[in-house]
Write a sequence for this structure.
C-alpha cells in the first residue's frame, strides 16, 4: 500500500511540474528575445556535469535497492570492494551525490545573480528560479528521506521487510526527481 500511495502522490507531483513547464514555455513564447539574451549566461558544461552526477546517483540508489531486496543492509568486506556494498553504502553515496548536485545548483545561482539574473529581474529569471528552485527543494526532500532510511537501519538490530519497502519507496521518489531534472535540463539548457 505504501508503494501505491507513493506512486499516486508522485502523480500529483508530476502535475505540479507540468504546470511549471507550461509556465516556462508560455512565457518563453511571448518573449523569445529575452530568452536568447538570458540563456547565453547559462554555464551549460557545468550544468551538464552536475546533471551527470544526479543521474549517476539514481544508479547508486538502485544498487542500494537491490541490496535491500537481498536483505543486505551493510557491506560484506572492505569499503573498497564495491560489489560487497549494502544498502547503507549505496544510499550514503547517493546522498553525497545529491548533495553535490545541490551545491552545484547553488554555485550556478550565485553566478547568475552576479550577472544580474534574479527571480525579480526578468520573466526569464522568474521561471528559471521557480522551476529549478522547486526541483532543488524536491532533491533536498529526497536527501532527508535518505537520512531517514539510513537512520532506521542504524537504530534497529535487524533489517526488516518494512525497512526494505521504505528504501524502495524512497528510490521511487529519487528516480522521479532525476527524471524531472532530465526534462528540466533539456528544456532550460539544451533547447535554448
Amino acid at each position: 500500500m505504501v508503494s501505491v500511495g507513493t506512486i499516486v502522490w508522485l502523480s500529483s507531483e508530476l502535475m505540479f511540474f507540468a504546470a511549471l513547464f507550461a509556465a516556462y514555455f508560455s512565457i518563453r513564447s511571448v518573449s523569445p528575445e529575452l530568452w536568447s539574451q538570458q540563456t547565453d549566461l547559462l554555464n551549460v558544461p557545468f550544468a551538464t556535469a552536475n546533471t551527470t552526477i544526479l543521474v549517476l546517483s539514481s544508479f547508486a540508489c538502485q544498487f542500494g535497492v537491490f541490496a535491500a531486496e537481498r536483505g543486505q543492509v551493510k557491506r560484506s568486506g572492505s569499503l573498497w570492494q564495491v560489489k560487497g556494498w549494502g544498502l547503507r553504502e549505496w544510499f550514503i553515496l547517493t546522498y553525497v551525490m545529491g548533495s553535490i548536485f545541490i551545491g552545484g545548483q547553488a554555485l550556478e545561482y550565485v553566478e547568475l545573480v552576479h550577472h544580474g539574473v534574479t527571480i525579480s529581474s526578468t520573466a526569464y529569471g522568474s521561471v528559471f528560479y521557480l522551476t529549478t528552485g522547486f526541483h532543488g527543494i524536491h532533491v533536498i526532500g529526497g536527501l532527508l528521506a535518505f537520512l531517514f532510511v539510513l537512520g532506521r537501519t542504524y537504530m534497529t538490530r535487524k533489517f526488516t521487510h518494512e525497512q526494505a519497502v521504505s528504501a524502495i519507496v524512497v528510490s521511487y521518489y529519487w528516480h522521479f526527481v532525476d527524471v524531472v531534472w532530465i526534462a528540466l535540463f533539456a528544456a532550460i539548457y539544451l533547447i535554448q
Residues 2-190 form a domain with the Four Helix Bundle (Hemerythrin (Met), subunit A) fold (CATH 1.20.120.80).
